[in-house]
Amino acid sequence: MSESSNQESLGRNVRQTAAEMATGDRTDTLLQTDELVKTFGGFTATDSVDFAIEEGELRCLIGPNGAGKSTLLKLITGTLKPTEGKVYYDGHDITDLEPNERVDRGISMKFQVPSVYGDLTVRENARLPIQQFADGAERRRLVQESIDAAGLSGEEDAEASTLSHGQQQQLEISMAASLEPDLLLLDEPVAGLSVDERAKIAERITRLNEEEGIAFIVIEHDTDFVGEIADKVTVLNKGDVFREGSIEEIESDPAVKRIYLGEDDGTDDSGGNGDDGGEP
Amino acid sequence: MAADSSAADGTASPSPISRLRNRLEGPNTIGNSRRFWVGLALAVVALIAFPIVGGGTGNQFSLFLVLGLLGLSLSLVWGYAGILSFGQTVFFGVGAYTFGVVSINFPTPGGITGGVIAGTLAGAVVAALLGYFMFYGGVRDVYVTIITLVSTLVMLTFMAQTAGSEWTIGEAALGGFNGMPGMPLLNLGIEGIFTFQFVFNDLALYLPLVGPFEIDPFYYLSLTLLLAAYLGLRVLVNMDFGRVLVAIREDEDRTMMFGYDVKRAKLIAFTLGGGLAGLAGVLYAARNVYIDPSVFELYFATLPVVWISVGGRKSLLGAVAATISVEYLRLNIGGEMALVAVGALLLLSILVLPGGVVPWIDGRGLPWLKQDAIPWLRDDSIPWVKSKVGIAPESEATES
Fold this sequence. Notes:
The complex is a heterodimer of chains A (280) and B (400). Chain A is of the alpha/beta class and 280 residues long. Chain A contains eleven helices and ten strands. In chain A, helix 7 runs parallel beside helix 8. Helix content of chain B is 64%, strand content 6%. Classes of the chains: A alpha/beta (280), B mainly alpha (400). At the A-B interface, helix 4, helix 5 and helix 6 of A face helix 9 and helix 10 of B.
């Protein structure tokens, strides 16, 4: 059976391809990038990145400014198309799929800046992802669950722009998670949050990961936070994977410290100040 | 009352009126209350009675109603889908010319009716083509505005040079700047079954107390179509699809990452808007029995943007109200002063009321029409809406 016909017939939640079942190979790799290159003019944002995560894994992605973290995330969501290389998801080549088609396959994302719809009420926000697949009483129940999970019970009719930064982050995580994804990408979910709010988000991520089996890729600069949630950490530098390992291994690695301080031979000179916003 | 208690505990299935209201109401439109519908009914009655008691036939006013359809088309495209189109006049003009060409070639009631349909579809098809290349070509935001603006100027230049005899489609000469002569009167229907001429056919009627009066059937045709379009769009923008459009307007990338095909949604909205503008163009040409390239001019292309900005772009009601008011003002001032007045109005609304006049009035809640000021207008004073009260918002009741 050809790969392409498999792709046509497979929806989300179908774990194994015929090819994989035949070979018994890598059945639990959820996402894999193959020599992913993205250049903007003369600037190479990602340089043949090979990156993979397993089903149900919780992976943190760290690295100095300009390391290519946000670019890699956008290549995975399909917001950017790679110059070279492939993205495989659930064993299928999804490189040419539009972002919304990737969402249908089970990839969901929370943006770096809280991107709730400010002019809409909390309920309208929560309803938007859910209305695609649920109706009537089921829809009402899921919307309420989504709002409750964000800790926003009682705020249903408030305009989202009136919520605090932390509440907006929670609401957006709820909205992204309500799509029942297999992979949830979070771009700096706790930037600018208080200690309390950070703890809530950490708890939320861990719960979604452990109870619902959602795999995560989290971009985060806060190493304490990373240590709290992550199974495994990937360090990106100059557009490529620099190190991979547990948070202890990464933290004790002098080479990682050097790239953060800009002492490595890297072109990066802005240090690890935690702001990744200027990255293309 | 049995009906009262069963509605209150939410076990009874909603009445047809309640269900209709659920479709028409939602967070994306203003006027989700009984007082609004009473007010709208009063306004419609006033518009129906206007030619009868006002002395005229309604012929002059019918122009404003036709342009109201054009205003609604931009409200959908810009106000709801967030696509600032400066080229609704392209679809308006294409609709008008298509109606002219078809009706001149088939000047029977069936042919003219076909012309109305063809003109509407032509507006939609041209919008679909233009929209397809823009949205699927990755054109966004201000570039869409520029392309649509240029499109109307291209149409102006093109139609202006069609004076020669080679620019004839069948019997219909496009006529360049002189416009298209020889259009038949708007006589709709099917020969042998039922036909009716809607223009230049003032009906002399008599009512006791009022006495004899004359009405223009075209006025009532355009009023009916405007009301239908308004209510239809209310249903559309409060549907799931309408909520997707609003989400796209608010944040296109975010909406795509919730799994929505935003290009397709924008194309659908743009096409519907084109069809509505096309219908407005058809009626415009039919009313004047004439069309010329001035409908593609920059000045005319600007007007819908002014109407929608003044009335409030996120409000269908605002679009209609402002189109009628601004056009009434513009035609009564006339000449160069009208330009100044319209420009001043646009500046004023952008600087003082960026959200538009109608949403501002709605937000202030009109103290003299507050719900609790007049008990009879309260939503909870009537059994069939009682189930809605307290279960905010209406949107969620829609699915029940």
